[in-house]
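USER: Please consider what follows.
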Amino acid sequence: MEAAADNQSPSSSDVDVTPRGASSAVLRALQLIQYDDSDSKLQAAKEIRRLTKTSQRCRRLLAEAVIPLVSMLRVDSPQSHHESALLALLNLAVKDERNKMSIVEAGALDHVIRFLQSENINLQESATAALLTLSASISNKPIIGASGAIPLLVNILKHGTTQAKVDAVMALSNLSTYTDNLTVIIETDPVPSVVTLLKSSKRSSKTAEKCCSVIESMVGFDEGRTALAAEDGGILAVVEVLENGTRQAREHAVGALLTICESDRCKYRELILKEGVIPGLLELTVQGTPKSQTKAQTLLRLLRETPYPRSEFQPDTLENIVCNIISQIDGDEQSSKAKKMLAEMVQVSMEQSLRHLQKRALVCTPTDL
C-alpha cells in the first residue's frame, strides 16, 4: 500500500528529483533528518517519503535515514511525526530487502505494534501497511510472528477499515509461510473474518487470492476446517474462487478443498459436492497450473462414490471418475454443466493429442533427396 502523497511546502516542492538532480535532493533530505528541531525532521520525513515513492535508487541512497526515522516513532515524539515517519519507512522498505531488515533491526516493530492499537484510523492503516511490507522479508517473518503482531492483525481483519482489512490479510498470508507462525495464527481464529472478507471481494482479485492462501494454510488444522465448514457460504466462496480466481488463487482454493476432503472424506465430501465444484475441477485439470491439475484430479477421485480403484474392466480414468460423480449429482442444471465441461475437456485433450501427433509426424518425415 502506498499512502496518498503529503502536501509539500513551497521550500520542498521545487527540489529537482529527476535522475540528474536526485543526489542533491537525497543529500538535502539526509541533512534535514539529522537536525534536532522537529520541523526539520518532519520536512525530511516528507521529503524521504516523496523521493522513495517510485525510485528504487533513492531507497538505496536513503537507507541511512532508517534509524533517525525510527526515532521519530517514539512515544515522546510529536504525534505529527508518527505518520510521516512511518510512511517514509514504508516507502523505504518497498522492494528493498535490506531496508526491510534494517527497519526491524532499528526497533520499529514495537512502535508499529503500538500504532496498530491506535484510535487514529490513519495511523492504524499506515501501521498495517507497514507490517504488510515488512512481513514480505523472509528474515522478518519469525520476528514479527514472535512480536505479538498476529493477534492484532486478526483484530484489524475483524474491525478495521476496508483497506486495513485487505492489508492485514495480505500480511497474514506472508506470515503463514513461516511454519512456526501457523500455530499462532490458528489460535486467533482468523477463518470467519477471512471468509467474510473473501465473500465481499471480487473473486479474481488479489485480495481473494490472499484470502484463499490463508484459508489453505488454516485448513491444515482441524480448527480451521471446522471453522470454514461452519461459516455460512464458506466452502462456496472457496469453490467460486476455484472457478473464477487468478491462477494462483485457484491453486490455493483447490489445495484447501483437497486438504479438507483428505482429512475426513466422509465428513466433507457432500459439503464440497453440493457447492457445485465439479465444473471448476474439470476446467482445472486442463487449464490450471501443474499443481492445480494434479490436485484437481486427486480431489475428483476422492469425490466419487467409492475411494477404491475400479476393476480392470473399468479403468480409473478421469472420464470414468467424473461420470461416476455426475451420476450422483442432484439437480439437472449442475449435472448438465458438468457433462458439458467433461465433453469440452475430452475435446481439448483430443486436440492436444492431435497436435502432438502432427508435430511428431513433421519431425519423422524424411528430408527429400
User: Anything to note?
Assistant: The first helix runs from residue 10 to 13.
